């Protein structure tokens, strides 16, 4: 069972990570590089930003890879574009391999309850993973472009983790629960993080153009949607085709 989980999860996750890296380079990286120019002051989109407090830093939406926001040669002066891109591919594939293992672990739990996961159902599991790791957290903490500002990092990480767990549990209860009580509990879990609310700033003073930040957030979520669907299909295929 463990060998089956590791093999299917890692292979599916690695393949999905390569897809994610390709889509990142096609749709996301140019926005990050542009955002870094606003963050560093090389570009200014309105005059008032020149006197605004310096951006306190930024981090990724859930699922985004840390290497994506690496400032590279603009800050270190020694890292080439090739090194940056290679690190992006490496960390993207590693993260999605971990997601793949989590996904097939869920398949294994479902199998213990008599539910067989095929390629088609794997896609649904993948979309549920997207909802838990990307979409639901983004409703409170949208993907952040360089030059954006946000609340305390520790508070955001704690809210993100709680949102992932609550959303995953809520979707599981809605999908596999058999009573009105489990459905109500699932709905309550889905709503709870947003009723509590994500950590927010008292004021906003980022230097990234809001139009650019909105495009960045939309593309990050779009890429996540496609990659998680692919991950679910691949993981479901490996799981269903590999002998138990």
Written description of the protein model:
With 244 residues, the chain is mainly α. It is built from seven helices and no strands. The protein has helices at residues 2-40, 73-76, 81-112, 119-138, 153-176, 180-196, 210-241. Residues 48-78 have low confidence and may be disordered.
Can you summarize this structure?
This protein has 244 residues and is mainly α. It has seven helices and no strands.
The radius of gyration over CA amounts to 19 Å
Unreliable residue stretches: 48-78
Tell me which oligomeric state these chains represent. Answer: single chain
Helix/strand order, N-terminal first = HHHHHHH
| End-to-end distance | 7 Å
Silhouette: flat
Number of helices: 7
Structural class: mainly alpha
Report the average pLDDT across residues: 86
How much helical structure, as a percent, in the residues?
A: 55-70%
Q: Count every beta strand, where a strand is a DSSP E run of 2 or more residues.
A: 0
What is the makeup of the main sheet? none
Strand content: under 5%
């Amino acid at each position: 069972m463990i060998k089956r989980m590791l093999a299917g999860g890692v292979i599916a996750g690695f393949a999905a990570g390569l897809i994610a890296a390709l889509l990142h380079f096609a749709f996301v990286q140019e926005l990050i590089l542009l955002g870094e120019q606003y963050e560093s002051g090389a570009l200014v989109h309105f005059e008032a930003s020149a006197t605004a407090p310096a951006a306190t830093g930024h981090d990724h939406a859930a699922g985004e890879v840390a290497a994506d926001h690496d400032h590279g040669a603009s800050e270190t002066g020694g890292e080439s574009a090739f090194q940056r891109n290679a690190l992006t591919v490496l960390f993207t594939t590693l993260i999605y391999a971990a997601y793949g293992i989590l996904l097939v672990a869920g398949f294994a739990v479902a199998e213990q309850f008599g539910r067989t996961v095929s390629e088609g159902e794997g896609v649904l599991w993948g979309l549920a993973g997207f909802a838990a790791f990307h979409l639901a957290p983004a409703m409170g903490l949208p993907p952040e472009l360089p030059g954006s500002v946000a609340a305390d990092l520790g508070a955001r990480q704690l809210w993100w983790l709680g949102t992932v767990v609550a959303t995953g549990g809520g979707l599981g209860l809605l999908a596999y629960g058999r009573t009105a009580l489990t459905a109500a509990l699932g709905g309550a879990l889905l709503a709870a993080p947003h009723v509590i609310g994500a950590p927010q700033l008292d004021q906003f003073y980022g230097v990234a153009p809001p139009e650019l930040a909105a495009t960045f957030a939309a593309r990050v979520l779009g890429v996540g949607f496609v990659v998680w669907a692919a991950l679910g299909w691949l993981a479901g295929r490996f799981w269903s085709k590999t002998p138990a």
